[in-house]
Amino acid sequence: MAVLVVTGTGTEVGKTVTTAALAAAALAAGRSVAVLKPAQTGVAPGEPGDVDEVVRLAGDVTAAELARYPEPLAPDTAARRSRLPPVRVADIAEAAEKLAAEHDLVLVEGAGGLLVRLDDSGSTLADAARLLDAPVLVVAAAGLGTLNTTALTAEALRARDLTCAGVVVGSWPRRPDLAARCNLADLPAVAESPLLGAVPTGAAARPPAEFRAAARTWLAPRLGGTWDARAFTAQEAPGRPTLSGASTR
C-alpha cells in the first residue's frame, strides 16, 4: 500500500504513537516514509504537533501538515472559530498523492475519529480515503466501551465501500483488566477485520532508539512487524471458568 489512512475510534486512543510505530517499522525495512497530518488542532504556531512527535520517535520521516488551529476542537469548528481556512478533502488527496510519488509509504493521520467534520460542507477523513482509494487502519482503545466505537467505525467504512485494513490497540495497558483482555478476541469480530497490533501504554515515553527497535514487535506482519495476534491473545485472554467456577488458566 502506497497510502495508508490512520483513524481512531475517538480522541486520545493512540493514533500518533501508532503512526510513529508504523513509520519506524517501515523505515527498518528500508522503505521511505512520509507522514501527512491534514488538520492539527490544539497546538499554537511554533509548537510541536503530531507530525513532529512521529519524527521524534520514528526518525527519518518526511513530515507534512496542511492546516493548524490553536483550539483543541474538531477541525471544522476550530477553523471557523479561528477564522482560518478549513482543510479541504481535495487538498488532502493532492498532498498525499504528491508524497506517494516520492515515498514508498504515506501515512495520513486523521484528527479524532473517522467522521469528524473537516469543513462546513461536512467532509471527513473518510471522503479523503475515498478520493485516495486508500485502506483505513483503525486505532482503538483497549478497555470497556471500545467494542461499540470500533463497530461503529468499521460499519461507517463498509457503508462507504472503504477498506478497513485492520485494528490496532493504540495503548495496551501494563495490567489489562478483564474487559481489555476479552476485547482482544472480540475486536476483530466486531470490526470484521483482523487485529494487527497492540502498542504498549507509555511507548512514546521510551527513548527514540528504544522505540524504533521495539516498534516491529507491536505490529503484525501485514504492517511490517512481527507481532502475532493469536499468540498475544492466547497469552492475555482470561481463563475460561470451569463448572465449579474456578479458572482453568
Summarize the structure.
It is built from nine helices and seven strands; from the N terminus they run E-H-E-H-E-H-H-E-H-E-H-E-H-E-H-H. It has 249 residues and is of the alpha/beta class. The longest helix has 14 residues, at 15-28.
Element pattern in H and E: EHEHEHHEHEHEHEHH
Distance between the termini: 40 Å
Fraction of helical residues: 25-40%
CATH superfamily: P-loop containing nucleotide triphosphate hydrolases
Mean of residue pLDDT?
94
Ordered list of secondary-structure elements with their pairings:
Blueprint: E1 3-8, H1 15-28, E2 33-41, H2 50-58, E3 62-69, H3 75-82, H4 89-100, E4 105-113, H5 125-132, E5 136-140, H6 146-159, E6 164-172, H7 178-191, E7 195-200, H8 208-214, H9 229-236
Parallel strand pairs: 1-4, 1-5, 2-3, 2-4, 5-6, 6-7
Comma- or semicolon-separated keywords:
single chain; 249 residues; alpha/beta; Rossmann fold; seven-stranded parallel sheet; 9 helices; globular; DTB_synth_BioD; ATP-dependent dethiobiotin synthetase BioD
Fold and architecture overview:
With 249 residues, the chain is α/β, with parallel strands linked by helices. It has a single domain, classed as 3-Layer(aba) Sandwich (Rossmann fold). 38% of the residues lie in helices and 21% in strands. The protein has nine helices and seven strands; from the N terminus they run βαβαβααβαβαβαβαα. The chain has helices spanning 15-28, 50-58, 75-82, 89-100, 125-132, 146-159, 178-191, 208-214, 229-236, and strands spanning 3-8, 33-41, 62-69, 105-113, 136-140, 164-172, 195-200. α1 (15-28) runs parallel beside α2 and α4 (89-100) packs across α5 (125-132). The radius of gyration is 18 Å and the shape is globular.
